[in-house]
Amino acid sequence: MSADPRKPFAIVTGASTGIGYELAKCCAQNGFDLLVVADEAAIHKAATDLHGLGATVEAVEADLATLAGVEKVWAALGDRPLDALLANAGRGLGKGFLDQDFDAVRRVIDTNITGTVFLIQKAGRAMRAQGHGRILITGSIAGFIPGTYQAVYNASKAFLDSFSFALRHEVKEQGISVTCLMPGATETEFFERAGLMDTKIGQSSKDDPADVARTGFDAMMRGDGDVVSGWHNKLQTAIASVTPAGLLARQHGAAAAPGSGKQ
């Protein structure tokens, strides 16, 4: 089934569940046809559901921690103009860095940074050539906080937050907008997959992914540079900006330490 050339076209990564799925829903409900991507078979069920919202949807199961996975996504785009890239794919990892398997560490880095940046470069070059486009990058307020017991994950989000601000200024005169969505803890499968369910943060109340996605989508459509979802996350970000890094690291450790949720 081919996309309608009269409709805008978007790629959404990490779209099988959580924020990514909700971002894809926002796109479908606002007239976009879609290429949705995830590294699990559930992406095909998500595509079927999204098609029910009136969009033409193609699903690609690809590992965006690999360059080959990114190339697979890009090949699926073909010669269709790309109006929006919602780069949402991400992976977390809990527990102390010295106790983590390095293959798991590298997978976080390669998913959150390497694969994401490679796809953004491909999309950005295509958008520059056509003279327009929107890029939404899912960063995190975690990027403002040293992530004790989530050290690699928080550092990867600090990279994305910084990268998005810089890229926005590089391409702003080329018809491309870059928006960084910075959510806080959100009710998704992230915490279970990251091994954080026995922590205080894993057991805490979290934001609704649909609300987070709507905030990010609307900001992207307005062309905003960045948006923090939720007033409590805005407050946390403001506090983090004036709090010594050592204190932030200690506070994060108290919430993310293995077993802290049982205390």
TrEMBL record:
The keyword Metal-binding does not apply. InterPro entries: NAD(P)-bd_dom_sf (IPR036291), Sc_DH/Rdtase_CS (IPR020904), SDR_fam (IPR002347). One of its GO terms (cellular component) is membrane. GO terms for molecular function: oxidoreductase activity. The keyword Oxidoreductase applies. It comes from the Bacteria. This is SDR family NAD(P)-dependent oxidoreductase.
